[in-house]
Amino acid sequence: MAVEQPRKKAAEGAPVGRRALLGMLGAGAAGLAAAPYLQSGWEGFLAKASQVDSTGLTGLLPNPGGFRYYSIVGSVPHKDETNYGLRIGGLVERPRTYTLADLRAMPQTRVVADVLCTDGWRVDDTPFEGVKLSHLLDDAGVRDNGQAIRFTCFDGAYSESLTLEQARRSDVLVALNMQDKPITHEHGGPVRLFVAPMYFYKSAKWLSGISVTDSVVPGFWEERGYAVDGWLDGADRHAA
Ligand SMILES: Nc1nc2c(c(=O)[nH]1)N[C@H]1C(S)=C(S)[C@@H](COP(=O)(O)O)O[C@H]1N2
Ligand SMILES: [Mo]
Fold it and tell me: Does the keyword Transmembrane apply (predicted)?
């Protein structure tokens, strides 16, 4: 991608530090000892620990995978092929709900890109695979007045946005696989957004709604000071 985009620092002007905010949202440390963490291994433990960690200290524990777990809510329902649905609506000709099987039956695209969080951690060359968002938008038929997309999540709280132009890029996926395996619950499975050219906060986990809107509706972090356009610097943006 040689096209230069404005280089905004995504976290600039954030009115409250995110660690502090996540701490405020956290349920407190009391639940940690009771968390049944052995069942899902170290990453799952970190996930559960950070859900109840009001200090932010779990972010300092070593995680061999390089990823940190983020959720703005303490617990998220688990979904699979029996109960997952992705609703596409708003300013489209043909609103519909896709099951996991529907999404798996569509053409799959694999994108390998560097993942960067505004908190400073990164995981280079991470493969994601799924359906191009542009494909779903074409299926639904965006109306003439459709200008942007609002994404919602089955955690009941997170949201994100893209302009229609951004959403139509070939490196923006409704992802089913991450690191060549089905996306785990902790990473936002069974379906998350992957916006390769932008900071990872744009990649909404537990994706359940895609709504075409007539203007950009700022998402959860954008309402708290993050840039609506979360472009990575050019050097970090090399997905094809
Ligand atoms: N639903 C939801 N999606 C989300 C978030 C979240 O808190 N909730 N956090 C975002 C941020 S800031 C990052 S860095 C990544 C973290 O993804 P991971 O937990 O798989 O590492 O998810 C993004 N998508
Ligand atoms: Mo992030």
Answer: yes
Instruction: For 181, list phi and psi in degrees, rounded to 5.
Output: -135, 155
Find the 141 Cα to ligand 2 centroid distance in Å: 31
CA dihedral angle for residue 207, residue 239, residue 60, residue 205, rounded to 10 degrees: 0
Q: For residue 159, give every residue at least 6 positions away whose Cβ sits within 8 Å of its Cβ, in sequence order, or none.
A: 150, 151, 152, 153, 204, 217, 219, 220
Nearest one of 183, 181, 180, 202 to 191, comparing CA atoms: 183
Write the residue with the smallest CA distance to atom 24 of ligand 1: 204
Sorted by where each starts, the structural domains of the chain and their CATH numbers stand as 12-69 (no CATH), 77-236 (3.90.420.10)
Q: Whose CA is nearest to atom 20 of ligand 1?
A: 187
Q: Which tokens belong to 73? A: 């809510």
Question: ∠81-195-230 over CA atoms, to 5°?
Answer: 140
Pocket probe for ligand 1: among 50, 126, 200, 222, the residue whose CB has the most ligand atoms within 8 Å is 200
Q: What is the mean pLDDT of the chain?
A: 83
Measured in Å, residue 117 CA sits from the centre of ligand 1 at 9
Half-sphere exposure of residue 193, counting CA atoms within 13 Å on the CB side? Answer: 33
Instruction: Identify any residues that bridge with 192 across adjacent strands, giving them in sequence order.
Output: 175
**pTM of the predicted structure, to 2 decimals:** 0.81
